[in-house]
Amino acid sequence: MLRFDIMNFRYINESYGHDRADKVLMATIKEFEKVFNPQKELCVRVNSDQFVALVVNDMEYEEKYMKYLKGISDEANEAQIRYPIRLKVGMYQIRKEDQNIDLMIDRANAARKSIDITANVLTATYSDNIISNMRKVDAIESEMENSLKKGEFRVFIQPKWDTVKDEIIGGEALVRWIKNDGSMVFPSDFIPVFESNGFIENLDFYMLEQLCIKMKEMRKDEKNYKFFPVSVNQSRVLINNPDYVKNVEKILKRYDTDVSLIQLEITENLFFDQREKMVEVINQLKKLGLELAMDDFGSGYSSLNILKDVPFDILKIDKDFFDETFISKASTVILRKIFEMATELGIDVICEGVETKEQVEMLKGFGCHAVQGYFYGKPMPVDEFIEKYCLVK
Predict the structure, then answer these.
(1) Which DSSP state fits 300?
(2) What 3-state DSSP class applies to 216?
């Protein structure tokens, strides 16, 4: 039993129109009937871009599935849709004793919901672990709306440091979910859930707004403050919102925020399947005067091509890539060349995950002076950050 949907179908609808998007939906059924055996196998549309299929799990399934996916993509290309077609598929292996069809579909759907959309693998098979994880997800989803209203999502800031001048140059805003009873939900538990159900859009705008509110409070305060630029992460869900740039602009204007103090961090992986859309959005953000950082640079496969097309101001070197420099001479050479290239392009570089004095000295030798990591400071509550670094005493 398969339960699947078309990734980011809303974007296809909004960008290419309902008529062309409908051709993708029709192709999903038509191509199935071409590739699979209609005598034994069946595919039906449940609603929107949601489908259920019954297939024979044999040695030919993988080959058939790839042929099926290619067929849908070819139909989309004929409809002048340049967006890559990808399916998020949950699978349930039917057992002899299974009788309840609704239950089979629900289990396949549970597998589909367990898929991390930031990963490259977009298929999952049902297991008992998935049910256990679903209970955790249900608990998070049952509390998220109310927790946002109660202010349980807190802004923490980790300092960014100039290693040559040995002084702070900015910070990165990071969300922490601390309940009113003092208990904490870890970002690794709730961020993937919010990215999957779309709630991350509310949270990202909330984080940006809280920063702008705090900066306005500091301006009105009688105390003397020094301001530093703070970066905020932006999720893939936001990028697919057609009103995203307008909403960012509204927040900045509502609190009369100095745009030079806000940086937006966009992960490189977003360009894997949304290149054209991303370039368009980034150019619009640049028109607002915002500085943009490419997060996790070096973790994907198209970093250099992205730099050629997209006007980023800052590169954040992926910490996993950076850790590898201590065991790989090749990685050290590549890292050095990245700094040289960025300098020639007029792009700043920040290395995150810096934890030792040895790392600092090595990076200084490469010409990288901006770092972020536990060596200089852990993420701290925004008020603590202001007291420690911004208040002129």
Answers:
(1) S
(2) helix
**Encoding tokens for residue 3?**
């339960």
Give residue 129's Cα distance to chain centre: 24
Integer CA distances (angstroms), 52 to 13, 46, 207, in order? 21, 7, 37
The structure's pTM equals 0.75
| pLDDT band, residue 192 (cuts 50/70/90) | confident
Secondary structure in 3-state letters for 311-345: CCCEEEECHHHHHHHHCCHHHHHHHHHHHHHHHHH
* Listed residue (57, 217, 228) closest to 157, CA to CA: 228
- The verdict on domain 2-126 having CATH code 3.30.70.270 is yes
| Calpha distance 285→355 (Å, rounded) | 33
| Domain map (residue ranges) of the chain | 2-126, 139-390
Give CATH superfamily name and number for 139-390.
Answer: EAL domain (3.20.20.450)
DSSP 8-state assignment for residue 219: H
Give the Cα-Cα-Cα angle 119, 84, 55 (nearest 5 degrees).
75
- State which amino acid sits at residue 256: D
pLDDT at 219 over 90: yes
Helices (H), the chain: 9-16, 18-35, 61-78, 101-113, 128-149, 187-197, 200-220, 236-239, 244-254, 275-287, 303-309, 319-323, 329-345, 357-366, 382-385
Q: Where residue 276 falls among pLDDT bands split at 50, 70, 90? A: confident
